[in-house]
Batch of 2 targets.
Target 1
Amino acid sequence: MHHRLSFVIETISKKNILHGKKLKNNFHNADSDYLKKTEAFLVKYEHILKKQHKDLDYAVTCYLQMLADVHYESVQFVKTGKYSNTCFADVNKKVYSNPQVMEYYMHALLLRQFLLPQNYAILNFFDKTLRIKQAEVNNYLEVGGGHGLFISNAVEVFGNQVAYDLLDISKNALELAGSMLENKNVNFIHADIFEFNTPKKYDFITLGEVLEHVENPLDLLIKIKSMLTKNGTLFLTTITNAPAIDHIYLFRNADEIRNLIKEAAYTIEDELCTWSEDVSPEKAEKFKVSMMYAGVLVIK
Amino acid sequence: MIMKRDDICKELTQIFIDVLDNENIVLNYITTANDIEEWDSLAHIHLVVAIEKHFKIRFSTKEIQTWENVGNLIESISSKI
């Protein structure tokens, strides 16, 4: 195995045996392309961390903190069947507007994108979608761009002829995304999507893992629809049964997501569903395993 | 009533058998997650909830992270009942 990836997995394993066991299983079965891309990401990421006087050890510490948070939220979820958050304003204060939390959280999410194969599968599906839509795109918006990995991929595929807007409610997220992006064509917007108004229409909008962070995801899908061009595409990802410090809206299964998409008057062109654990359907049901959903949506 | 550590271990074994759905599990003080295939991060959450419910106790996130084997888990339970 490549040495940076080995370092990350071994460091996590020493502090969290169970998660280390999971990662070792994941990468034991990984194909060479996945391993190669993960190591390439870690090389780039290490370079970004170095500029901030940080290292991979720091990133692993952030990741372990996120695991501890998720563990706490998961225990509450198993006991109550609900997410602990109900109010966006509270989450905004506790997480998005809290630099200390956002600092570790964004680094943890970025690392997770490659450490968990289901996140990597979603990223590949995104890349495939970008290449299919490439000829139709002149402007691109990403809402809740977080760590900047997805928009980096879009910039790589679409190139400099496309105008990019990246909107996020968190300043820290925008800063990390800025360090991921070397492209100067990206316009960074610090705003709440519900308060963001522009006469501009977009050919391609990415809404990655945002729906579960709002109180009313239907309103958000309708708002996004108003910002798409007539033939525009929305790339949407969200997740079921996934307690976290900032998740509010609980989707219990993929059909609930599909029904919401239908209610917001979109058509699903393509989709990908991937379980977060490599388990049998019976165990997935018993343990309420989370499922990542990605959909390529167009206006009906 | 103070429970002996061996009795806690016996009751824990039954919880593990029920949650992990494996009749062949036999726990001892040095058992770790590496010794039981089904004991993964997902199952661990359900084990914690089942153990808390059974012994009527609550674990802190910090103490859960310090467990390296079943012996550590038994110590945590023992200190609370």
Target 2
Amino acid sequence: MTPLPHNKSGSFSEGLFQRLLSIYPKAHRDEFGPSMNQLFRDQCRDAWRTDHNWGLIKLWGRVLPDLVRTSMIEHLSAFKEKSMNERISHLLRSSSTPKKAFVAAFGGIFVVVLAASVLITFLLPESYGSVARIRIEPVKGRPGIEPEKGKPADPYHVMSQIELLQSDVILGKVVEELNLKEEWGLKYSAGVPLKASEAVVMLRSRVGFYPIRNTQLVEIRSFSDNPREAARVANAIAETYKMHSMQFSVAPVFKSLAYPADIVVFQSNQARITFPVEIVDSAVPTTEPVRPRKALNICVGAMIGILLGLVCGGGIGGIAFLLGRNARKNPA
Amino acid sequence: MAKTRIDPEELLPLTPAVFHVMLALADGERHGYAIMQEVAEHTDGTIKMGPGTLYGTIKRLLEAKLIEESEERPDSNLDDERRRYYRLSGLGERVLKAEARRYEEMVKLARGKRLIGKLTSELYPGALR
């Protein structure tokens, strides 16, 4: 037999192969390990003769998948050979079993929970948010007319206006104005237009109204899978509410006028009429989705995985420890 | 106690790896490397067994008693005495013959269906006499 020419690649390959044999079950390694080593040495010698380093690389390309595949087969075969009782009793008697059980349970649960959170995060539909801001004038005295000095502002005015904002009066008009019955019917109801009430309910679930503390400002937040639609809806609500408020503020003034003489009086009073709602910021489409919050979801998933893993791993490791102690005390 | 004789047909069909290893041992005993070379030669290099596949197959063949390890060791001047030699057992020979016959039947069937060409001896029965 020609020995393998002394070279670094050959020695490295042989050493690596010898170490890799540890992935086989011990019984198989003891029985066939030396023969497998010898066969690999022969193969290395042939590969070196043919193509030098390239030959060795090609050999590893064949041998490595073969090692992985056959080691799994041998493990499976070794597992099948032992009876269930033998396996359990062997496992329990080993002093390292509780630690292994803890690590396996902790690792398994952590990986499963983390993988589930990543999967859910990336499967969830993206939702874009848009915000419009309005300013609501506090009402003192007669609505629409400049607040009378000395009269206190209505402390519940903003809350009342928020209720009005999410009422059918405003949202119903927005649904009509944006043609949401047809648009959402096409999108969510297989082309069948939604009823007005259904569209309003759907719209209500996609918007939120939030007063900003210590100011007269209210945020109108709208969410949609389409950033343009989110901005369009928020702006439409702000506009509709503004028009509605104007209508109810100015109408009493006009009603009180008697044509034509009072017009002159009205014109002179125009400066005193105040519009109770002002759009401070219009909503613009955003490029970044607000939901799902990917980093947050994955971090929360990892935290839950760690907690669950610790609890379950601790429990399983503890049970394995107790069972092992009993098994060692009563070997029969 | 009377030995129960195993019917070779029960062990068929053999996997390609098992068949090739047994075929390599049909001529006589060989060690692992020689079996691997023989298989590569028989198959024009299309089947190159790795150490894992070869010794996994040998292990299963030993367990099934289709091959046995030879006790005799070659002269250490001629070969590495650490090498382990294997040979077909009586059962192994019968199983290999049964498998070869099975292949023969299949080849006949394929010829009948004109999937492969006929042998010269079949076309001209007297030609090889």
